[in-house]
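ESCALATION

Customer reports they have been waiting on this structure for their group meeting. Please prioritize. Original submission:
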Amino acid sequence: MTTSENTSLYVCQDGPADAPPLLLIHGTAASARSWEPMLPLLTGSHRVVRVDLLGCGRSAAPEDASYAVEDQVRLVGEAMDRLGVGPAGVVGHSSGGVFATALAQRRPDLVTGLVLIDTGPHMGAYIAKEVPLRDVSWAGLTDDRIRIAMSDGFHEGFEIPAEYVDQFRDIDFRAFGRISQAIRAYLEERSLPSRLAPLGKPLLVLFGEEDRRWSPAAADDYRAVPGATLTFFPGLGHSPNLEDPARTAVPLLAFTESLRQTRTA
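Update from on-call: job pushed to the front of the queue and completed.
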C-alpha cells in the first residue's frame, strides 16, 4: 500500500471481510510474519489485519523518513482508513504495544480496545542484556549465534524455530536503530499507563511470568488504567504469542468478544 508520502507500507488481511476487525502490530526486530502462529486461532472470528511498520518486514525503509512513533501510527491510521477497517481491537506485542497506545491516542476513532502483550510500561522496566553481536559481522552470523541473540525473547529452554531465525536475518539494522531510539524516546517522555488512563479504552495486558526483556512485576503499573485487566502466563517468556499461541488466544478472544458485545448492546 502506498501512503500519502509515496512510501510503501505492507498490509495484509486474513479472515472474513465482514467479521469484527483486529489489528495486530509487531514488535521491534520483527514483522507481520511474527503473528502467523496465531492466525488460525483468530481468523475464524475476526478480520485480521497485519501491518509491517515502516522500516520493517516488507515495508519500505526510506533513508529520509521519520521513524518517530507518532509518524508511524499516522501511516497505520491512513492504511486503516483506506481499507475501511475500524474501529478495531488493536493488539501489540512488545514494542508493538507502544504503537498500539500511540494509535489510540492519535486516532481514538479507530480503536475499540487494546491488548498489550509483554509491553513494558516505561523504560524503568527494561531488563534485557546487551545482544552479543558486536564481535562478528552481520553477514557472518550463524543460525546458532542468532538464536543466542534472540534467546531472551522467549522463556528459558524454548527451541527457536528456523523461520524465526530467518525473520531475524531480514532486519534492516539501520531502520532498527532508528525505530529503537524512537520507542525509547516515547517511553521516556511519558509512561504508557499515564497515556492510556485518560483515553477510556478497554485494556487487556498479557505478560509472560518468565519475561527476560521487560520486568513482569512492572506490569502491575497498568493497574493505574481504569478497568485494566492483567493476565500472567506461568512458564512463558517475552513472546507468549509465539511460545504458546493457543494459551495466549484464550484471554485475547474473550476480551475481543467483550468488545463486540459492548458495541452491539
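Sent to customer with the following note: The longest strand covers residues 111-117.
Escalation resolved.
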